[in-house]
Every structure is written in C-alpha cells, then in structure tokens.
Design brief:
InterPro entries: DSBA-like_thioredoxin_dom (IPR001853), GST_Kappa/NadH (IPR051924), HCCAis_GSTk (IPR014440), Thioredoxin-like_sf (IPR036249). This is 2-hydroxychromene-2-carboxylate isomerase. It is an enzyme of class 5 (isomerase). Its EC number is 5.99.1.4. With about 220 residues, the chain is an alpha+beta fold. α1 packs parallel to α3, α1 runs parallel beside α8 and α4 crosses α7. The protein contains 9 helices and 4 strands. A 4-stranded mixed sheet has the order 2-1-3-4, sandwiched between helices. About 45% of the residues lie in helices and about 10% in strands. It has one domain: Glutaredoxin (3-Layer(aba) Sandwich), CATH 3.40.30. β1, α1 and β2 form a beta-alpha-beta unit.
C-alpha cells in the first residue's frame, strides 16, 4: 500500500477543493492517506509572505477562481462570513480528535477532516468561529483530548514546524515518496506519480528545479 501525507489548513479554499478531489485522484490505487493539520499563517510568516486574502486584488481573484473550480468539480463552496479568520480552534480540534502522539490513531481521520472543511466551506456563509457552531462541531466530533490542552497546542506547533522543515510552503500539499505536490491543481501530477509515470524516474523532477544556463538571477 502506498503512503501519502495530506497537509492542510481549513482556512484554505484550495485545501478544501483538494480534499474533495483527492478520492478521484487516488482511484484505482491502494493508498493510505495521513492527514496533518498545520497552521498556514505560520508557514507564511516563516517564509516572509502574505496570504492571498491579505492582498485585495489577489483576494478578489482567489474567490473568483475557487468559485469556478468548485463549479467545475461540482461541489459546494460557500465562503464563510469572515475570511481570513483565526483557524486555531479548528486546527486544535482536529488534533484533539486524534489519539495522543505516538499512539495508534494519532492523526485525524478523513471523516474528521471532512467535518472541519464542511464547517467552514459548506456553512451557508456562516461565521466559522461562531461560538455556537464551534460547540456543535465539537459535540459532533467528540474529541479524545481537550483542544485547549498544552499537549494539543504543542502538537500543532510541532507538526507545523516539521512541515516547514520538510519544505512545505502552502496548502494543500501532498507528500508521496519524498516529493511534494502543492495545490489542488497538482493532483493530476500526483496521480501520474502513483501510476509510475517514467518522467519521475528520468531525472526530470530534479532537473526542473535547477538554474538554467544563461538565466540571470537577481539577488
């Protein structure tokens, strides 16, 4: 069975769309997916970048594009009342739904992740951090751990730091055999890798990221 890791933050509409499209991308393959919630804002801060929603023109384009992608995928995507919002309550709830680190089941399962994405992106435009909605979500998920505990908070921090160390710079990112596939639109590329496309054994993956002769780079 092939092993994949899906890094995500429920604040990202692209992560929501990638999550919805993942089963089709994996169809026909024996695959086990590990879901790892991470704090997207921490990636941006560490890399000195702004999120799409922090740049007004980019924010407008992002929501137009994700509306189109949802239309083409045939899925529901209702932006929450406020975006960006603080995703920490949802991220901590996700890790709280998993067993303590090092024990069997110490990452959240697909159903939990689905509930988080639906809470944000299928909430008919409701506030993702509305206290009553968060309480109802917590009751439905019945976490194994206290989402406000130091153990859960530290787990989220460690997972985000580990993702950064691995080279993750955005969400969603899928890791397969040491290769990082970033974005919902990278799923066809991931499917080709799963199918054993010889391109991935040809050295093209490595060569594509190397500086080209004659290209002047500013420092």
């Amino acid at each position: 069975m092939k092993q994949l890791t899906f890094y995500f933050d429920p604040i990202s509409p692209y992560a929501a769309l990638g999550f919805e499209a993942l089963p089709e991308a994996l169809a026909g393959h024996s695959v086990e997916v590990t879901y790892r919630p991470i704090l997207f804002a921490a990636l941006l801060q560490a890399l000195g970048q702004k999120g799409p929603a922090e740049i007004e023109a980019k924010r407008r384009w992002t929501f137009r594009q994700v509306a189109w992608l949802a239309h083409t995928q045939g899925v529901v995507l209702d932006p929450p009342a406020e975006h960006p919002f603080n995703p920490l309550p949802l991220l901590r709830l996700a890790w709280a739904c998993a067993a303590p680190e090092g024990q069997p089941g110490d990452t959240p399962g697909r159903w939990v992740v689905e509930q988080l994405f639906h809470h944000v992106w299928r909430g008919a435009g409701a506030d993702a951090n509305d206290a009553a909605r968060l309480a109802a979500l917590r009751e439905r998920l019945a976490p194994q751990q206290d989402p406000s505990s130091d153990a859960v908070k530290q787990r989220l921090r460690r997972e985000t730091e580990a993702a950064l160390a691995l080279g993750v710079f955005g969400v969603p990112t899928v890791v397969f055999e040491g290769r990082l596939f970033w974005g919902q639109d990278a799923l066809p590329m991931l499917r080709a890798a799963l199918a054993g496309d010889p391109w991935f054994r040809s050295g093209a993956w490595e060569a594509a990221s190397q500086p080209r002769p004659g290209v002047v780079r500013k420092h």
